[in-house]
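Journal club side-thread
Mid-discussion, someone asked how the predicted structure for our own chain would compare to the paper's figures. Pasting it here so we can look after the session.
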Amino acid sequence: MNNSFLNILKTTNAGLNWFYINAPFDTYVSDMSVLNEDTILFVMNSTSGGGVYRTTNGGTTWTQLLSQSDPEKIYMYNSRIGFIGYNGGSPATQRTTNGGLNWVTVENDGFRDVCFIDSLTGWKAYSGVKKTTDGGITWITQQLPTGGNIVVSQISEFSNVNNDTIWGVGGDVFYPGIGSRGMIYRTTNGGNNWLYQVPDTSIHIAIYSYIYFYNSFKGWAYSTGPGIHTIVGGDSIFYPLVNINQISSEVPSDFKLSQNYPNPFNPATTISFSIKNSKTIKIKVYNTVGKEISILVNKKLNPGEYQYLFDAGSLSSGVYFYSLFIDEKIIDTKKMILLR
């Protein structure tokens, strides 16, 4: 649940009709986790009666498990393991392993969204994304794309499809003359590498707040108003972390694309290129059948020599090609080999 509401409603006919169920009092529910038709836990952010509540009989009776004024989010992986946190990052994320009877602080920031694929492996997001592999005891920050036209790179809500594929929203890019556009994030290796796309749509949504994917290809993303829907896994182009460095400002005699090093590589390699005039530069990656896999660079650069660190962690072993474009005109293409 993402919006706070008064009291609790229940449906038994797929949402056609709703009725109130018993609540402890005029409860201001901040977030809820439903385990089954009998067991429900919710948190209330209030100086009067705030904390964690649980029912094991479908809402007939409730028990306050924790008296605390400010929890806003709750996630229960199962009837024993769960987490509560504050939307703004304070107080810390707290964890229970006995169904909410006891809570222990495990993190110094809270969360807006959290999901586990088993009792050990999970992710949580507030502005960045963190992953745990020990049941939430420790959390490791994952790297999101930055640089280029990106204004804010953050994930506030995500949708876990399987052990590897996760979609997320919350960041935005800015294009002169167009304005802000919302970013859709995706990882296909459990968050080791996050890529993003800017949906090609006539609805220029400035930022997306909600996302849900039924599988790797079919999903929805929405703001507080309009939204988008895909049945093919979004657009074909995903942008990676912008990791480009100018290593020399000396003006070269020509435009040049160098062979990547190392080659073969696993999983990262450096691509070097030279620019003799201030131009709009693109470097694109293709597979062996000519399908565009990714755009590594897409920006106007000053004259000089540059290096781009290409992380191919989300790609499978094989032969790939990368091309240098100057003002949309292809200059050169090189072959690179990814060996796992």
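Post-session note: The first strand starts at residue 5 and ends at 6.
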